[in-house]
Design goal:
Blueprint (H helix, E strand, L loop, with lengths): L3 H4 L4 E5 H8 L10 E2 L11 H13 L6 E6 L4 E3 L6 E3 L5 E6 L1 H8 L13 E6 L11 E6 L21 H10 L1 H4 L9 H10 L11 E3 H10 L4 H31 L8 H20 L2 H19 L2 E6 L17 H8 L9 H12 L2 H10 L2 H4 L4 H15 L10 H8 L4 H9 L4 H13 L19 H11 L5 H7 L1 H14 L3 H14 L7 H10 L10 H5 L24 H4 L7 H19 L10 H5 L1 H8 L15 E4 L3 H4 L11 H4 L10 H6 L5 E4 L12 H4 L24 H9 L18 H26 L5
Parallel strand pairs: 2-6, 3-10
Antiparallel strand pairs: 1-10, 3-6, 4-5, 7-8, 7-9, 11-12
């Protein structure tokens, strides 16, 4: 290896970017330098648009900025940038990167020397079909394993890219159906479909015209040895192969639609898929020879400039990386520096800081955390950072060192210096340690066990707020027989977790209060009733109320929605006490009870906002469907855009949201019996409520996203259910003529002779049917939630 005095001169070195990426790629034949990450570093946190913006800057020849690194001399453990595996460097050392990790990882996504055997799970594409409409030199696309068809249209620099619409994903799945629909006795799971699509060379970004994998482009460029003619020839060959592949795929779909066994196919989506391929083929052929020649030459010139770019690497002194004992009573200098540097990096949060300092003191903590996260249920709730901060809180509680629901840097600095804390923490998070055993056993106990069970599928674990889970663990780690305690208290623990998801308004404040309760007294059984009462008394949570309360204690002034079976909170005046009561005097206790019940029902209706249609409670209410459809897929905490399921409107948003009627008349707003609030549309409060939403896999839905409830609920023209969808929980939609008729009636207007598309045409009959259907389903879902988790504490 080179002498480091030659590498750094006066604390700085000038490095060719391509050399830097070769060193960071982890190639075994790299003989110059190795770029590694110190234990304090995090994983990649950049979004797709940030990666594309960086590559645009590189191809424009813009400065990359400086890197901060230092010589590694000590025989300590570091990360490899690509796979984040722990490694021990040879005696001669390497370069430890402190600032510049996100930029390096973004570049490595498209670097050919990473090796084809390494799947980065993310890809950058460059499009030679059209010029970018905004400020990029080329049009870029981005795809991931969970989104193999890429994302929506990219905008200007700094603008996030949206997910593809549900309709686009359905059409894309039909376009590439042969990739995942293997001929085998057992159909492929959704996870296997996604993996097959990600690995397939024929799958390209959905909005691409002439998209090429940037990693492949760079590989061709490097192999062409700076020969522009050779580069042009290879790129044109790739484009020709792509056109031939599209033509072959289009012909295959056309033939597939004519096959005798095609009766199960949705031919409307099949036609959309064929049209999409036809447009792609025409778009590629429409690229003129001059345009293509100009773009290929521009790309070659940009890559040539990029290959000759240099960047500064600033040297960090040895003492910053020191792991000696002289500073053991202070925060590591590396953590302090990482927290202070501000060269465009992402700020270090309190939780990141805690994890970084712990890894500095005990590098094995990384391996222990990753070992725990190999458990898919744990990975469905925690990131490495939140897992370690939870273990810190539980260790401190067990040692009676205080409670740290939201630990900050100052609190942690004091905690880590207390005798015995770090040693006990290391033992707790190790295999068979207290924390590891408790969390694995608890999540196994909470898990769904089959039809009729009240447990949570893996995807529904997001319902368990982390502070609430820490509360359950705080009680569990006091039990001598963990297995027996969990089985005896299983129903209580599940009920309390789901109750908290609905009724607790501040999980962190609630958990702090409950930790005090659990430390004040030893409880052999989980004290569900005690904790509920405490939270309600302190006005941190709402009490659960039986659905019967609304039928026996509330009298409506007016009944606008019929039939008369809609009473109490099922009516359209459900969220106002003055509208719900007859106007007579109400005792204070009864008033408080009704106010709490109304607020709880409001949260169940839509605990976010009227415009939001994400309802995580459906992941439990539809648990049999969610388990069967998505259990083999990873649950990704905090990554909603990467979730494998969709929230699907039963009565589609295109029917009622934003429309004023057809031709300026027949407006839904004129007929709906719903209080109008400032800045809100009452149809949005109805249409986005839990009563009009189901959890659904886009690949399972063979109809267009704008299909009516009649189609989605499998109703016949007469309004009779032919076969309720398996995803709908038992009892959610009453199997009665009136209820079925309401869903059918809100699907389309009865007669609209002057309009071909009648979905925007609303009559009073259709509007009230829309409202009644949703009111009934919300109430039935609440009733289901309450009854299936009973008995509730009084």
């Amino acid at each position: 290896m080179m002498d480091e005095k030659v590498f750094f001169a006066n604390g700085i070195a000038t490095v060719k970017i391509t050399d830097w990426l070769d060193w960071a790629s982890g190639r075994d034949d790299s003989t110059s330098w190795r770029i590694v990450l110190p234990m304090i570093q995090r994983g990649s946190v950049w979004k797709p648009h940030q990666v594309m913006d960086l590559w645009d800057s590189l191809l424009r020849g813009m400065p990359l900025g400086s890197m901060l690194a230092g010589m590694v001399r000590e025989q300590v453990k570091y990360f490899q940038p690509i796979n984040r595996k722990l490694i021990e460097l040879p005696a001669e050392g390497g370069l430890s990167l402190l600032d510049g990790q996100q930029r390096t990882l973004a570049m490595l996504l498209a670097w050919p020397e990473v090796g084809r055997e390494v799947d980065m799970k993310r890809r950058v594409w460059i499009d030679l079909g059209l010029d970018d409409k905004y400020d990029h030199l080329f049009r870029f696309h981005f795809s991931t394993e969970n989104h193999p068809f890429g994302f929506g249209h990219s905008g200007a620099s700094g603008t996030a890219v949206p997910k593809l619409s549900v309709a686009e994903r359905r059409t894309a799945l039909m376009t590439y159906f042969d990739v995942w629909k293997a001929e085998q006795e057992k159909p492929m799971s959704t996870a296997e479909r996604r993996q097959a699509l990600w690995k397939a060379q024929c799958v390209v970004p959905w909005h691409g015209v002439v998209p090429l994998n940037l990693q492949k482009v760079l590989r061709v460029f490097r192999q062409s040895a700076n020969d522009s003619h050779d580069f042009d020839t290879v790129i044109r060959t790739c484009l020709e192969e792509q056109v031939n592949g599209l033509v072959e795929r289009k012909n295959m779909l056309v033939e597939r639609s004519k096959a005798a066994d095609s009766v199960d196919l949705d031919h409307a989506i099949m036609r959309l898929a064929v049209d999409h391929l036809d447009k792609q083929i025409k778009a590629i052929k429409a690229v003129s020879e001059s345009d293509l020649t100009g773009r290929v030459q521009r790309l070659f010139n940009s890559l040539s400039d990029f290959s000759g770019q240099y960047m500064p690497v600033i040297e960090l002194p040895d003492r910053v990386f020191s792991t000696g004992t002289d500073d053991s009573d202070k925060d590591p200098a590396l953590a302090v520096l990482f927290n202070r540097i501000g060269t465009g990096g992402t700020a270090l949060s309190n939780a990141d800081y805690v994890y970084s300092v712990i890894k500095h003191h005990n590098p094995e903590c990384h391996t222990l955390a990753e070992t725990l996260l190999a458990n898919e249920r744990i990975a469905g709730l925690f990131t490495p950072v939140t897992l370690v901060t939870a273990a810190v809180r539980l260790t401190a509680a067990r040692l009676n060192l205080g409670d740290y629901a939201r630990i900050d840097k100052g609190q942690f600095a004091g905690l880590v210096r207390k005798d015995g804390f770090l040693a006990d923490f290391n033992d707790s998070i190790a295999s068979q340690g207290c924390f590891s055993r408790c969390i694995e056993a608890l999540l196994q106990t909470l898990s769904y066990r089959g039809k009729g069970d009240v447990g949570l599928p893996k995807q529904a674990l997001c319902l368990v707020e982390l502070p609430i889970l820490e509360t359950l663990l705080c009680w569990l780690q006091t039990q001598s027989d963990i297995a027996s305690a969990l089985e005896t208290n299983r129903h209580r623990l599940i009920r309390f977790a789901l109750y908290s998801a609905l009724a607790v308004q501040d999980p962190y404040k609630a958990s702090t209060l409950m930790f005090k309760e659990l430390k004040a007294e030893a409880f052999a059984d989980f004290p569900e009733e005690t904790l509920m009462r405490t939270l309600v008394k302190e006005q941190i949570a709402l009490p659960m109320r039986s659905p019967e309360l609304f039928r026996t204690h509330v009298v409506l002034k007016t009944m606008v929605c019929t039939p008369a079976s809609i009473t109490g909170l099922r009516g359209w005046r459900r969220f106002s006490l003055s509208d719900l009561t007859s106007g007579s005097y109400i005792e204070d206790e009864e008033r408080k009870l009704l106010e709490q019940a109304i607020e709880l029902y409001r949260r169940f209706w839509n605990r976010r906002q009227s415009w939001n249609y994400r309802h995580e409670l459906l992941l439990w209410l539809q648990r049999d469907y969610v388990f069967n459809a998505f259990e083999t897929l990873p649950a990704l905490p905090g990554a909603e855009d990467e979730s494998p399921y969709d929230y699907d409107h039963i009565c589609p948003q295109g029917h009622w949201s934003g429309w004023t009627g057809c031709g300026g008349s027949n407006k839904i707003i004129d007929f709906i019996q719903e209080p109008k609030e400032k800045g809100d549309q009452p149809q949005s409060r109805l249409g986005n409520s839990i009563g009009n939403v189901r959890v659904w896999d886009s690949s399972d839905n063979r109809s267009d996203s704008d299909a009516s409830p009649t189609t989605k609920l499998k109703l016949s023209d007469s309004g009779i259910a032919t076969n309720w969808p398996e995803c709908l929980p038992d009892g959610v939609i009453d199997d009665t003529t009136e209820t079925i008729a309401d869903w059918h009636a809100c699907s389309r207007a009865p007669v609209v002779p002057e309009h071909e598309d009648d979905r925007r045409y609303w009559t009073r009959e259709r509007t009230l049917a829309f409202q009644r259907a949703i009111e009934n389903r919300v109430f039935n879902l609440y009733d289901l939630f309450y009854q299936q988790l009973a008995p509730w504490p009084d």
